Amino acid sequence: SEETAGKGDITFPKGFVWGTATASYQIEGAVSEDGRGPSIWDTFSRTPGKVVGGHTGDVACDHYHRYRDDVAVMADLGMQAYRFSIAWPRIQPDGSGPVNPRGLDFYERLVDELHGHGITPIVTLYHWDLPQALEDRGGWTSRETAERFAEYAAIVHGRLGDRVETWTTLNEPWCSSFLGYGAGIHAPGRTEPGAAFAAVHHLLLGHGLATAELRAAGAKQVGITLNLAPISGNDPLAVAHIDGLQNRIFLDPVLRKEYPADVVERARRFTDWSFVRDGDLDLIGAPIDLLGVNYYSPTTVELRAGQPANPVHPGSEGIAFVQGEEERTAMGWSVVPSALTDLLVRLSRDYPGTPLIITENGAAFDDVLVDGRVADERRIAFLDGHFRAAHAAIEAGADLRGYLVWSLMDNFEWAEGYGKRFGLVHVDYASQNRVPKDSALWYREVVRRNGIQS
Ligand code: GBH
């Protein structure tokens, strides 16, 4: 009650949704089971030198076989929602044509298990595991991939549409395009800036075409998840440059039906944008019900003569990326909770009218399992700070509907392999034992109270 509320207490709006998130290739394993075809991440992770330690997702958390246990863990933790992704190569092993019913069966079992425990499923249709057969025909640099993606979306909705209300099309198209086709840090490992811009457009077109399919099929809520970062710095043009490449190149087409003119202009040295056709932006900018925000860390830039381009931001010569004295996670990312407030407030100011949900936020730390316990107080402090920052944004008027922590459990951290642990639940990769960390038990209380009691 008001009387007993302490000074540092915060309570979220009624109906605020709490949960966790994962992605198919990072947790499932079972890469050649039940008719799954190869994805670009199978190929990439098996290419020497691409992933730390030569790790692959072949076994990962073995979630494909242990999903019942994992749902039980979520239920024990009082989770209300679970965001997971569907592996396209399980549904269409060749990326197009014949459907593999055993792939759909798995996700139907998972969704039913979630409902059986009162947990709301939130489906991501694409979290980076493109069928290799489509990459062989150009991947996201090809318009065809966008069209195939829409067909795949319709197939999945056809099976799960009666039991899944919330759909997001893509996870972080920035990573797929700029890390995958521009910098080569992610699959498919191409290093061509021009290809990265073509991938941006075809990913967004895929989102638009899939959204149309989902709408036609009667999907209740449709959205997209972007990895957004507040950009700051002492030079407004440098800030605008990186903000354009990181944030506006996705936000503006989806929420304003246009590419930002300054980004289009600067990218002309890499592409003539001829892949953008009449009508594409109307599809891409069709209304969405929910914008998923993945937030990890802010970016600070400054002008520095002679600075070579950062390969993840084509054309960024002369701009240096700097970090302050803030605490860093095991990934080396600065911990700045206030930047989350800034980001959410900026989104509601610049792109009003679209409800927001945090589809990922979390951190990797050097966790150790001692006597069956992980005392991850740094993760508790991280989440406490970011939950408070989200609450401050709501108080400032942001329409934030929920918060999904990355991640339910330790998993395959892409190019970093298994060494980086983002989980609320510890995974022993030898035994596949799951142990909720102290942060998971702390989070259970936050969810139970719909807030923090300090
Ligand atoms: C998300 O990516 C993914 O959706 C998820 O699968 C992944 O496991 C999780 O986050 C943790 O990484 O690289 O120094 O310039 C987030 C990817 C994180 C990429 C922040 C850009 C900027 C810091 N982004 N990163 S840096």
Automatic annotation (TrEMBL):
Gene Ontology MF terms: beta-glucosidase activity
Active site: E172 (proton donor), E360 (nucleophile)
Any one of the GO BP annotations: cellulose catabolic process
Keyword Hydrolase belongs to the record: yes
Top-level taxonomic group: Bacteria
Binding residues for substrate: Q26, H127, N171, Y296, W406, E413, W414
EC number(s) given by UniProt: 3.2.1.21
InterPro entries linked: GH, GH_1_N_CS, Glyco_hydro_1, Glyco_hydro_1_AS, Glyco_hydro_1_beta-glucosidase
Entries under Pfam families matching the protein: Glyco_hydro_1 (PF00232)
SUPFAM superfamilies (alphabetical): (Trans)glycosidases (SSF51445)
GO cellular component, one term: cytosol
Enzyme class: hydrolase
Keywords in alphabetical order: Carbohydrate metabolism, Cellulose degradation, Glycosidase, Hydrolase, Polysaccharide degradation
Catalytic activity: Hydrolysis of terminal, non-reducing beta-D-glucosyl residues with release of beta-D-glucose
Similarity annotation: Belongs to the glycosyl hydrolase 1 family.
Protein name in UniProt: Beta-glucosidase
